[in-house]
Amino acid sequence: MADQATKDWAEEGPPADKGRRRFLQATLLAGAAAVVGTTVASAKSLIPPPFTFSGTVENTFRFGLPESPANWVLQRNLVNQVARVTDFRLWDGASMLWREAFDEGGKAITGTGFPAMIICVDASLLQVPPEFAAYVIRRDVGGVPAAIVACYARCVHFCCKPGWHALPVPETLHDYVAEPRTFLATDPATGAPKPQDPIWCQCHNSQYDPVTVVHNVHPPPANVPYIGARYVHGPASRALPCIPIKLSGTTIEGLYEPDDGGHPEWYSAYCR
């Protein structure tokens, strides 16, 4: 299956970015329901009746196609599968879709869910505000203390989709406002330095450090406070929002409600 996915990738190229996804709460309106209504000579309205959503919304994350055909997600046949902590080794990271909606037949509803990424980092490097410490997942990976961090996968600069280790960050883009703590990574087997690139948005070269989690505020007129992965290279000027997560068995789930550590105003107001 992985070989076929890689072959398809090579023949067709990477899938088009589905872009600005937005979760629609409770009642989901189909695109047709948003049509601006007019009337015709017969006085029959062209506005169709609203579509009432009666399925479910998952708080889980599902693997998307990776940015590179050599990525471990393809090798392990994980595309469209629910993300579990056992899927991740140290410094593994993957593109995800979070809070996708499914109809009563279990079919995913196109256009629902948030773009996200999950990264497994060295826990000894992680710096996180105390109130957010419960919203990363800590576990041993191959005998090494690790932490799993989730981020919203839309660059704060211009809403492009950042990636994790799709390509090496060029040396010409190492003029950091603060050195990424990912560069402090070591080889668990030998203890030798093994620097890891930060999150990189290739649209305009913004970069974010997933092991340095900080407070930030989405600028006016939103003025929404949030917690995210520190920006270390512009043109971004603030952090990439983190998604609070928890374990349900071995399944990784995101928390959406503000009382649970989420900041839905930021997710729903940004990059629509």
Key phrases:
272 residues; mainly beta; 3 helices; 8% helix; globular
What is the second-level CATH architecture?
3-layer Sandwich
Shape: globular
- SSE arrangement, N to C: HEEHEEEEEEEEEEEH
Task: Name the structural class.
Answer: mainly beta
Please indicate the percent range of residues in DSSP E strands (runs of 2 or more).
25-35%
Number of helices: 3
Proportion of residues in helical segments: under 10%
The CATH topology is Rieske Iron-sulfur Protein
> How would you name the CATH homologous superfamily?
Rieske [2Fe-2S] iron-sulphur domain
**Oligomerization status of the protein chains:** single chain
Give start-end ranges of low-pLDDT stretches: 1-45
**Between the first and last Cα atoms, what is the distance in angstroms?**
34 Å
Radius of gyration: 20 Å
Total number of beta strands: 13
CATH class: Mainly Beta
- Please state the average pLDDT score: 79
Q: Which SSEs are present, and which pair or pack?
A:
Layout: H1 2-12, E1 56-57, E2 61-63, H2 72-75, E3 93-98, E4 101-102, E5 114-122, E6 137-141, E7 144-152, E8 199-201, E9 206-217, E10 225-233, E11 240-243, E12 245-248, E13 251-254, H3 264-269
Antiparallel strand pairs: 1-4, 2-3, 3-5, 5-7, 6-7, 7-11, 8-9, 9-10, 10-11, 12-13
